[in-house]
Amino acid sequence: MIKQETDKKFRFIPYRKHDIVEMCLQDNLLPGQEEIFRKLYRILDSTFHFEFHQTLESLKDSYAPFDPDSDTRRYENAAVTSGAKFIDLLRDLLEKANYECITKEDIDQAMKEYSLFKIRLHVDFNEFDELMLFSRGESIKYETIPRFLGLFPKTIKFINYDRMVMYIRFREERRKSKVQYPSLKYGFTLLKLFQNVPKSDLEMLFPNTNIRMRTIDKLMIGIPAAVSGFIVLTTKVGVSLVLLASLIRFWLGFSNQSVEINKTVILVLFAGLAAFGGYIWKQISTFKNRKLMFMQALTQNLYFKNLDNNSGVFHRIIDDAEEEECKEAILAYYFLLTSEAPLQKKEIDLKVENWLETKWNCSVDFEIDDALNKLARLNLVNEVNGKFTAISIQNGISILDRRWDDFFTVD
Predict the structure, then answer these.
(1) What is the rounded average pLDDT for all residues in the chain?
(2) From CA 42, how far away is CA 45, in angstroms rounded?
(3) Which of 1, 265, 372, 387 has the least CB density, counted as fewest CB within 10 Å?
(4) DSSP letter (8 states) at residue 12
(5) Residue 236 in 3-state DSSP?
(6) How far apart, in whole angstroms, are the C-alpha atoms of residue 320 and residue 324?
(7) pLDDT value of residue 1
């Protein structure tokens, strides 16, 4: 059972841009202007899409030398691209998509928290040359975990990341290690996108995660093994051990009483050794089967959490960034457009946040600075003495239409 509650405000607006437009029109503050407002939204969306397409092409060019999934040949005279350029582009894109950077302190804390996965995982961070984690949409959740054969359940509070992006580059020295990872190409960069990741289980996302037995798992195997081992030794192997000890004592001169080696003695010795060997093999198999069970659970869990890999990650984030930029611009423009008087920056911010929270039960830290900067860049708002007004919808469409034509004008 999982209950969810909001811990604090984040910049991400959890509605689609098309829904935001319809939610605004539902207020009935633009009677008779619904269609031209939708038209302005479409051309504004197209403008952002065109601008982000250029960002996408820059990301593709800068990531190409480090893409482990590339199926194209490399042009020998291509300009050398540094990894730093790609990282800067990626950071900027994630910022526009309203992702938050997960700090080293957060990662260290996550490594110490109680795992919901009931597995002890270990990650060697020394194998990474670069590591960055970003999240979007963070909430507090409660999950009830059964214990002791389903009895005495325990409710655990944990932080959950709705979306998480992972950037990893392995050290070149890792190439010489005896332990190699399948399909890992050294010198390349790994990008991963996950969903619904508990903070306490970040370890399971890393490619070099090792499964280790928890203390309780060792006891569950060790205690039955010790008990059954004692039974095997005292019943099936006991006679063989006595015969073997007698033979050794006689051969070493500690006893004058010889042991007659006949067919019966040999059969008893082999039967005892076979029973002991079978017991050891059974315990090894039990340990391996339990580890395989954990690996299967880990694989199944990751199957549903993984959303995209490598170049597919920034293709998806580009779409997220377009959505966020458009939603922020539309909301700020709408509240300026429907206001009877010019508004200051803080007033716009408060109106948007209150509207989302009271009418749509959505607590958001609205990025008013970013929203107004976009609108000012597109000439959709005017500012006088720190107060803002929106131009009319029809004038906005005309300005955006001319801007669209200028995209393809040859100087």
Answers:
(1) 79
(2) 5
(3) 1
(4) -
(5) coil
(6) 6
(7) 43
Most confident of 142-146, 204-208, 217-221, 404-408: 404-408
* Beta carbons of 317 and 93 less than 8 angstroms apart: yes
- The 10s digit of each residue's pLDDT in 12-32 is 999 999 999 999 999 999 999
CA atoms within 13 A on the CB side of 118: 16
**What tokens appear for 256 in the block?**
């004058």
Alpha carbon of 269 to those of 182, 256, 380, 396: distances in Å?
45, 21, 94, 95
Distance, CA of 116 to CA of 252 (rounded, Å): 57
Tokens read off for 108: 């260290």
Residue 340 has pLDDT above 60, yes or no: yes
| The length of the chain, given as a count of residues | 411
* Residue with tokens 């039974």, as numbered in its chain: 231
CA distance 338 to 333: 9
- What SS3 class is residue 160? strand
Amino acid, res. 50? F
Distance CA 199, CA 181 (A): 25
51: left (phi over 0), alpha (psi -120 to 50) or beta: alpha
Are the CB atoms for 94 and 74 separated by under 8 Å?
no
Q: What angle do CA 397, 329, 352 make, to 5 degrees?
A: 125
252, pLDDT greater than 70: no
pLDDT of 3 higher than 50:
no
